[in-house]
């Protein structure tokens, strides 16, 4: 079961794991690449919202100056 700020998501059935993956995991050679969707499930901001918040924080700390040049 995965819980997020917004809702609770139930994973009813675990998928079967191929033997090659089990072997790589047991030998310490397994690497996981998890997409942004996983972090969104647990309530993290989207990339756009994250980037905007970082820009706002930098601007408030006066570490970023935004100028309109014409």
| Ends apart, CA distance between termini | 53 Å
Spans of 5+ residues with little confidence (pLDDT < 50)? Answer: none
Class of secondary structure makeup:
mainly alpha
Could you give the order of the helices and strands?
Answer: EEHHH
Mind summarizing the main beta sheet? 2 strands, antiparallel
Number of discrete domains = 1
| Overall pLDDT metric | 82
Give the proportion of residues in helices: 40-55%
**Count of strand segments:** 2
Task: Name the features.
3 helices; 70 residues; two-stranded antiparallel ribbon; mainly alpha
Task: Provide a quick synopsis of the model.
The protein is mostly helical and about 70 residues long. The protein contains three helices and two strands, in the order E-E-H-H-H. The protein is about 40% helix and about 5% strand.
């Amino acid at each position: 079961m995965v819980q997020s700020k917004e809702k609770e998501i139930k994973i009813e059935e675990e998928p079967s794991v191929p033997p090659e993956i089990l072997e790589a995991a047991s030998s310490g050679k397994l690497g996981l690449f998890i997409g942004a969707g996983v972090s969104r499930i647990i309530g993290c901001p989207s990339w756009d919202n994250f980037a905007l918040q970082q820009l706002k924080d930098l601007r408030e700390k006066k570490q970023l100056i935004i100028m309109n040049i014409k």
